Structure formats: C-alpha cells, structure tokens
Amino acid sequence: MTAPIYIVYYSVDHAMTFWQAALEPLLPGIKLVTAEQPEAQDAEVMITWNPPEGMIAGLKNLKGVISLAQGVDHVLNGKTFPAHLKFARLIDPYMSEAMAEWVTLTVLEYHRDAAAYREAETRHDWIRLPPRIAARTTVAVMGLGAIGSVVAETLTHLKFNVIGWSRSEKSIAGVTCYHGDDGFEACLKSADILVSILPLTAATENIYNAKHFAQMKKGAAFINAGRGKQVVEPDLIAAIDQGHLRGATLDVMVTEPLPADHAFWDHPKITVWPHVSAQTNPESASEQVVEAITDIRAGREPRNSVNIARGY
Ligand code: NDP
Asked: What's the pTM value of the predicted model, to 2 decimals?
C-alpha cells in the first residue's frame, strides 16, 4: 500500500474534490486535508488560493506553498509568509489562452461597437456606425508576463497596433514594448483600448487613478483583468461619467464578489464579469502542481518560483 502524502488544501471548498481527483492519478497516495485535520501537521506542502493570516505559519512541517492561481497577491499581500518556505505559482498555458480569448472578445466589442448595435436592436433601429481599421487602433497591454505576452501576440494576429508595458525591457514580435515610468505614460497616452493584466503589488495598487485616467486619450476604453485593487473605482466612474473614457470592462473588482449595491452593476458603460476571464482548471494545471509538490518535498526550487521580494 502506498504511504499517504498529506497536502494541506485551502481554497474554494467545492474544488477540493476536483483537485483530489485530478492529482491522485499523477501522485498515488496524495491526500488533500484541511488545515484543521490532524494530518495537516505532517504535511510538507500546502496548495492554496487565499489562506487566512497565520494559517501557513501554523503548519509546522511545511516546506513550501503552491498558489493555485497565477496571481499570488491572495497569499502574500498583507500576510506573513515565513522566509524559510518555498513558494511556487501556476503558469498554465491554457490560462494564457483563455485570457487571450476573453481579451479578444472584449477588445472586439469596443472595436466593433457591439454595445451600440445591441442597444439599437432593442429599439428596432437599423443604425450604421462608421467602421474602424484595426491597424489604426492602438491596443496597449499592460503587463507582458506569462499571460500578457500571449494576449499581446494574439492581438497582433487581428492586425491591431499592439503596444505593451512591463517592468523590465521586453521584445515580442509585432509588439512595441515599453517599460518603466516613461513607458507607462506612453501607453496611457496612445491607447485607444487599454488592457491591464498586471499583478497586484505595492507598485501597481491604485495605479489606475484620476491622474492616469486623465492622461488617457479621450474616448479610450479600459479593460482590467489584473486585480481590482489596481483601480480607484470612483475615479474610473468619474472618468467615464465626465465623457473622458468611453467605457470599461472589468473582470476583477476591489471587493469580490461585487456587492449587490455597487455602482458598477447598473452603469450603462461598465461591463462586469465575475472574475472568470482565465479560471484555474485542475485538469490542465494538475501536472505542474504535482511537479512543484515533488520538487518542494525533495528540497528543490520549484520551476515556477515566486520572487517574494518583488511580489509576483
Ligand atoms: P507574470 O508575473 O508572468 O507577469 C506580470 C507582468 O507584469 C510582467 O510583464 C511584469 O514585468 C509586469 N509588471 C509587474 N509589475 C510591474 C510594474 N510595477 N511595472 C510594470 N510592469 C510590471 O504574471 P501573469 O502574466 O501570470 O499574470 C498577471 C496577473 O494577471 C496575475 O498576477 C493576476 O493578478 C492576473 N490574473 C487574472 C486572472 C483572471 O481571471 N482575471 C487569471 C490569471 C491571472 P516583467 O516582465 O518585467 O517582470
């Protein structure tokens, strides 16, 4: 009989059985347990999305943690992460593809005036708006990492003029890449559609605020799939209500789930998505989770290690 390998699980409750089913064939003996079960104290690895403060530090046998997401802010930000632990995150090509699909959908909605045509349809009105040329439409992709680089590259296939922004210098075929503070401003000023896929760190929190919305082109659209706390939400509403921005499509919010009385829900120029643009999928991610579990248990640095000092 295979000896049990206890792994602590803390994430969405109902997904625990999916993860157990996806991981078991790849790592016989694996047994996901909650932090409250006595076996958790034997566990060397925890897999998680948003552990409460103190939970990780309370697991005395732990050698490392794996984020069940590409973002790590729910594990790190405002929480203690013991320095001796290894920390890996997901980098799942299927999530990049899913995000590229969602961004394509939302960018094309603006590019092809989908909202105006749907609204005209409700009035049985046969309107025809002036067409736009993709090559003369600048789409700025903020964040050119595992996901953003795939998104930017995908948009080049639709012939958009794609520009992008990252912290370090990058080179992506067909994409004009900017970095640093000057690069941020250049992207704000030239984007007809701005798509943000940045991690939430001290440097990116509240980065989309009144000052920066004012630097954007009049009539530009704002799309955010990074994290809600990067946006000062009242400033976004003001920029739209003042007619400066055309509208916004948001997959992430400061408070999730979005409270029922939040102004975003009924705003005619804001489209709300419930954080589904690129969902973690145990089916596609289980192989790399097992690889990271194996590395951490063996004392090796996992492949997709998180730079904790940098925050992503
Ligand atoms: P990566 O770490 O691979 O990429 C992050 C990118 O952002 C990098 O290009 C990085 O620059 C850039 N960046 C980070 N900080 C700054 C900064 N201060 N200034 C300029 N650029 C910066 O992350 P992923 O692509 O895997 O994911 C990005 C984020 O997307 C996640 O952290 C998460 O918040 C969000 N996400 C949202 C999902 C959803 O369903 N809505 C699903 C999955 C992820 P550099 O390359 O120089 O390091």
From this structure: 0.97
